[in-house]
Amino acid sequence: MSGTPLAHGLGGQKDLPISLELAMSGAVAALVVSFTVLVVAWRRPRYDGGDHPGRPAPALLDRVTASPTFAIALRVLGMAFALFTAFTAIAGKESLTNPFFGIFFVWWWVGLVFASAILGPVWRAISPVRTINELLARIAGSDPETGLVRYPAWLGYWPAALGLYAFVWFELVYKYPTELGSVRLWCALYVGVMLVGGSIFGNRFYELADPFEVFSSLIAKLSPWARADAAPATGVSLTKDPTIDDVPASPGALLVRSPLANLATVEPRPGLVAVVAILFGSTGFDSFRESTWWVKYYQGASMTKFTLDNLALPLFCLTAGVLFTVACALTRSSSGTPRSELPRRYAHSILPIVLGYFVAHYLTLFLDMGTLTLARISDPLGKGWDLFGTAAVEPSYWFSYNPSVLATVKVLAVVIGHVVAAVAAHDRALTLLPERDQITGQLPLLVVMVGFTAGGLYLLFSA
């Protein structure tokens, strides 16, 4: 969406008082020091295997969130908002002031990530395609959970990876992402594919193939919320750290627990590495495509920008995926896990990095354009209405007037994301690596994470 108000968050290197060299040096130092501390002080797995139940949430919160009424209310809310969004898309003006663009690019893509990190798997709870599929199944007298055939295990997250790539390609590469007809067509194709897939494979399809539900559910693993019936992620028998004081909870109870414990329950299914590589690589490309070097390069190149972007986006995603895969596969596993499966076992550790870069890259977009969208939904047809009483709401652009704070937030988000990733990878390595390799075996992944840190900050500051 280059050249539009929706392009991405405010602030490049020219806006930030922190030098690139200082930011990169501090971030790399923080990661290396963190790894050193982990090697010395973290000798046994504390979270891996899903055997860290956490503590029961407040009883009232548990009762409310577990009640069928609450679930139905969320479904109704999600469906009502989906119908409103469809109304703005069909009847709204062919203009960037149409709230449909903000709903699609800002609230749905960026806001969903932030909401999931705080509240849990939001899209699963409000998904309108799940609701429509369930209504159609009830009318037909079938079970929406099972569908017609069983979802193939080998397919895993691959459909979700393709869906996520389709979205980032549409947002970052496609020539006309801000034409109303183009966005309507993308949404129509998404709904069509989801309804067909749900009717064939049941709700299992949404868990593994809906790009937005998969993204939301994976990021939700970094939230402090979980249910007591969460299954182990790896199936590896682990020795529990006796220093952790866990409180047993009844099956299905709402728990408050460490995001690292939640993160360890990500199931290493086929396609998981592709999902995280696309999320990480596309965020890096979003910064790169607006860097001074890239703008000058495509202006003087013989190929069109569209062609160059079509080459660069998959290159970023493939580079992220290949570097991570090679680093994970460079050592053997004491548990007998084939080298080819090791990247999937470690892939959950990239999710904190993805979230960190989303915060660094899209925070100002969400706050500023998200606020404008809140104002515009009160007047979806541009007729001077104030349906929800928000028409007068205006963004403060606070970060634009406080670049030092913005720079600090960006760097901290990246650094914290990488440090949490290092902790998650280290905890998993203690269960997978032979005892004699538990330090040297992590070095390839540490080198790659250092490269991701430095490269990510460079791209972020170059935009």
UniProtKB/TrEMBL annotation:
Q: Keyword check for Iron-sulfur, yes or no.
A: no
Q: What is this protein called?
A: Fenitrothion hydrolase
Q: Which organism is it from?
A: Nocardioides caeni
**Segments passing through the bilayer:** 20-42, 70-91, 103-126, 154-173, 185-206, 311-330, 350-367, 405-423, 443-461
Q: Which UniProt keywords apply?
A: Membrane, Transmembrane, Transmembrane helix
